[in-house]
Specification:
Layout: E1 2-4, H1 12-16, E2 22-24, H2 33-40, E3 45-48, H3 56-60, E4 67-70, H4 80-85, E5 90-91, H5 98-114, H6 116-124, E6 145-149, H7 153-164, E7 168-172, H8 178-182, E8 186-187, H9 190-196, E9 199-202, H10 216-220, E10 227-230, H11 239-247, E11 253-256, E12 276-278, H12 287-305
Parallel strand pairs: 1-2, 1-3, 3-4, 4-5, 6-7, 6-9, 7-8, 9-10, 10-11, 11-12
Helix pairs in contact: 5-7
The chain binds (2R)-2,3-dihydroxypropanoic acid.
Residues 50, 72-74, 97, 283-284 line the site of (2R)-2,3-dihydroxypropanoic acid.
């Protein structure tokens, strides 16, 4: 039996059904941990989401589990080392959501710089009285300097878009990449990137090293006119420091698709700020991309059940 922790985009269940017995949590909300634990007592495969915590204790309760397939590229919710120790391959969905997430990154850059949400709200609340020379004026995106922190697949896709906007592109990454060089992006130390960029966009994976990366020193290192964008993972940001940065004017604005706790608690001070635009983790949310992710995760699951190497495996060391 395989356990699916959520109803999935069309096509995924249909792809799995001929090959295995399926049990699925029926609601479009995170499966309660005790329900997941009980379901895994008898499951050979797990199809999960980034909202599910897969840790060593859960694996202890899953003696028959042979494969875990996550419908996401990120897998910081999974204790991969514990999976590897048990010989369980873990699959993810890299590549298919790259361009879609880069589009949303640009949507946040444009929306924060050009005050799109504020402008639309002004229309709805009857404030549009005439064309006014100084009303709702924002900052240009074209021609500005973009600092990309983390030049992986999504960072590079954002850089490609930035090149089309005539932006100067700086990046900081462990290594310099040929793709970045081909786009005219310049590797710089992080402090230099922060000091020079009009937009700073985060594209690193969440790891022990990147947790809390965006702290007071990071934000104070940015220009007062700069905009911070995060479509990666929320825990990389110290939200108390971000609140101070936005409310005390250390930086101009922020556009977030992810927050430290998701959903963001309704009493989060960030929700009180007009210069902080927050979306509900929708970076990959297009019909086509979510379908590709769902099918890719189904392929990983079926390969694991068949005892084959997962097409996209985050812990290939399980194969010795
Ligand atoms: C991922 O896949 O990791 C994104 O955050 C959700 O699409």
């Amino acid at each position: 039996m395989v356990y699916l922790t959520r109803p999935l985009p069309e096509g995924a269940v249909e792809a799995l059904a001929p090959h295995c017995e399926i049990a699925m949590y029926p609601l479009d909300e995170p499966v309660p941990p005790d329900v997941l634990r009980a379901a895994l007592a008898d499951s050979e495969g797990l199809y999960c989401l980034l909202t599910d915590r897969i840790d060593a204790a859960l694996l202890e309760a899953a003696p028959r589990l042979r494969v875990i397939s996550q419908m996401a590229v990120g897998y910081d919710n999974i204790d991969v080392a514990a999976c590897t120790a048990r010989g369980i391959p873990v699959g993810n969905t890299p590549g298919v959501l790259t361009e879609t997430t880069a589009d949303l990154t640009f949507a946040l850059m444009l929306a924060t710089a050009r005050r799109v949400v504020e402008a639309a709200e002004a229309v709805h609340s009857g404030q549009w009285r005439s064309w006014r020379p100084t009303w709702l004026i924002g900052a240009d995106v074209w021609g500005a300097t973009l600092g990309i922190v983390g030049m992986g697949r999504i960072g590079a896709a954002v850089a490609r878009r930035a090149a089309g906007f005539g932006m100067r592109i700086l990046y900081h990454n462990r290594s310099q990449t040929a793709e970045a060089a081909a786009l005219g992006a310049e590797w710089v130390p992080l402090d230099e990137l922060l000091a020079q960029s009009d937009f700073v966009s985060l594209h690193c994976p969440l790891t022990a090293e990147t947790t809390g990366l965006v702290d007071e020193a990071f934000l104070r290192g940015m220009k007062r006119s700069a905009i911070f964008i995060n479509t990666a993972r929320g825990p990389m940001v110290d939200e108390a420091a971000l609140y101070r940065a936005l409310s005390e004017g250390w930086i101009h604005a922020a556009g977030l698709d992810v927050t430290a706790v998701e959903p963001i608690p309704m009493d989060s001070p960030l929700l009180t700020l007009p210069n902080c635009l927050i979306l509900p983790h929708v970076g990959s949310a297009t019909v086509a991309t979510r379908r590709k992710m769902a099918l890719m995760a189904a392929d990983n699951l079926l390969a694991g059940l068949a005892g084959k190497r997962l097409p996209n495996c985050v812990n290939p060391e399980v194969y010795g």
